[in-house]
Amino acid sequence: MNIRFLRNVLLKGLALFLLIDLIFPVIDPATLGKQSLYNHLFTGRTRFPFGEDSAQSYNLSLFNLDAMFASHEIANGIKPNGEYRIITIGDSSTWGTLLRPAETLSGQLNEANLSICGKSIHVYNLGYPTISLTKDIMVLDYALRYDPDMVIWLVSLEAFPLEKQLSSPIVANNSDRVRDLIARYNLPLDPNDPALAKPGFWDRTLIGQRRPLADLFRLQMYGVLWTATGIDQSYPADYQHAQTDFSTDISFHDMTGPELDGSQLVFRLLETGMHMAGNTPMILVNEPMLVSVGENSELRYNFLYPRWAYDQWREIMAARADENGWNYLDLWNIIPSDQFTNSAIHPTPAGESILAKRVEQKILMQSCP
């Protein structure tokens, strides 16, 4: 009798699990990502979750954009009447690799206690550590629902090559959002590109989604440690510093010069992002980078950029900004070469302070409605 009872319980439990597993693919994953303990039980994060050493950073990388925003401080209720809301978008330099939250561009601008148009400025860091214009406009498209008063978009040449657009994991794993952007704005990207994830039915089942679901759970659990410590990144005592000596290679993404191949650079996506902002003021910033004086530095500015490619790109950017009336700030060389950390685009806190002061000046020049 007991054996029969246990058998029936097990069979019913297995049948219920299989039913849930088969029904799970029709559940909108956004409903799961939007449920968050951040901004309620835990303090909202000052930058998107990202990290690979969870034990030290109390953080992790995941691909659920809804969960990323729900964990961020920008999702903390209705925008206050007295707040002038600024969002920053960009790559790892904007996010703040090796910088504590208060040392980032957004953190330093907030520390300055700025005001404009009779309102207090609050800057929200929506940078994310991959380089792709597609990633940036995907974040911008989502962020506009939070009613920003200004957008600061930091870019660099490395974000423009066509081959970089869909290879970013955060882009590849948000394929439905990306395809929607391609269709809405007629972007010069292939919606059927194999880089974009195409999960099948079984991938969307409860079993197939066990890793993303585990990441959602872990993100919530790290909220305890984030709230208690304010730590969201590991800070190694030693790291490999940015390269300053180079070979004689002057190629840039298979281009060897002397002219940039415009067909391989998606300026259209930059124009789309500017258009998406609509009437919201946008400051477009060519982010600072390390300018080396080491071996073969007459050929390359740094590991990322040969001089011929970067110089031409800057000329194109300046011309397009002038032609379109963009509010453009070219700050490519304002930070001394000794004020970068592990990359040619990752400033030290002191280097970031130089950038923050220049951006602050530009913000305060904005006219009020």
Key structural traits:
alpha/beta, 6-stranded mixed β-sheet, 13 helices, 6 strands, 37% helix, globular
Binned strand content? 5-15%
Calculate the terminal CA-CA distance, rounded to whole Å. Answer: 79 Å
The beta-strand count equals: 6
Strand order of the largest sheet: 2-3-1-4-5-6
CA radius of gyration is 23 Å
The unreliable regions are: 12-26
* Average pLDDT over all residues: 90
CATH architecture call: 3-Layer(aba) Sandwich
Quickly name the level 1 CATH class: Alpha Beta
Continuous helix count: 13
CATH-level-4 superfamily name: SGNH hydrolase
Sketch the topology as an H/E string, one letter per element. Answer: HHHHEHHEEHEHHHHEHEH
Domains, number:
1
**CATH fold-level name:** Rossmann fold
Short description:
This protein is of the alpha/beta class and 369 residues long. Helices cover 37% and strands 8% of the residues.
How would you describe the overall organization of this protein?
The chain is of the alpha/beta class and 369 residues long. Helices cover 37% and strands 8% of the residues. It contains 13 helices and six strands. A hairpin with a 2-residue loop joins β2 and β3 (119-125). The longest helix has 22 residues, at 2-23. The radius of gyration is 23 Å and the shape is globular.
Set down the secondary structure blueprint.
Layout: H1 2-23, H2 29-33, H3 54-57, H4 65-70, E1 83-89, H5 92-95, H6 105-111, E2 115-116, E3 119-125, H7 133-143, E4 150-155, H8 169-172, H9 175-185, H10 210-229, H11 267-276, E5 282-286, H12 307-324, E6 327-330, H13 349-364
Parallel strand pairs: 1-3, 1-4, 4-5, 5-6
Antiparallel strand pairs: 2-3
